[in-house]
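Before a colleague's protein record goes any further, I have to sign it off. Thanks in advance; the entry in question is below:
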Amino acid sequence: MGDSTRTRIRELCAYIEAHPDASLTLAALGERVHLSPGYLQRRFKAITGVSPKQYARMCRLRALRELLREGETVTDAICDAGFGSASRVYEQATERLGMTPGQYRVGGAGLEISYATVSTPLGLLMMAATDRGLCFVQFGEDEAAMRDRLAAEYPAASLSPMPASTDAAFDAWMAGLRSRLDGAPDGRDLPLDVRGTAFQTLVWEYLQRIPAGETRSYSDVAAAIGRPAAVRAVAGACAANRLAVVIPCHRVIRGDGGLGGYRWGLARKRALLEREAAGRGNEE
């Protein structure tokens, strides 16, 4: 793919980000960068990992989050972020916020979050979920400290330990996490609550497509999402990840082969990579 096409896609990303409230058709976007709609659709997804429509949706959700944080009413925030109707934003926002816009604005008020802590070969792991999916997966040395971090993420939510009689969905999510910790290949079948900027979401979605047992450098990731100069921003997105293992930021390393950073400790990062490499070797 030529540098010219990559440059046009980068320019288009910047344009979409600057106009989250605009109605952007594929034909209009193609005309803007002098590419046919079909070719633009294919090249845009090849470079960023998502379609122009999906990218625009991420930008609107980012604008919605920022407006809600600034204190706008839910109705005004939905309008100003460029969503056509309240019903559409509720459908899309619950996928990315893990809660309704109103709940997000007040720190998760009215939201019920269940959590469980398990001992793993890599230390204590806390998993928390709403009825829509995982919202918190983190390692730690102390259960109380991890619960404090969960409370900081959702200060107004109702937090409670998962009862002994867990439901089937929560059991399945925990089983999926255990499988990944054992180095098994992972699919993208765990429902996630991904809260971040459009750029962070773009990075996180790409990370989930890195096969278990493989790694990418920070510059590889930046190039793959069409932002080759954004290496530091990619590292920042990895550091901001709140869903350990599920969004596998441990698979991103330095260009010289060094491990780079990992918010849950380099020993855990090394162990995760070794387990995945061993699991991949057993498959072959």
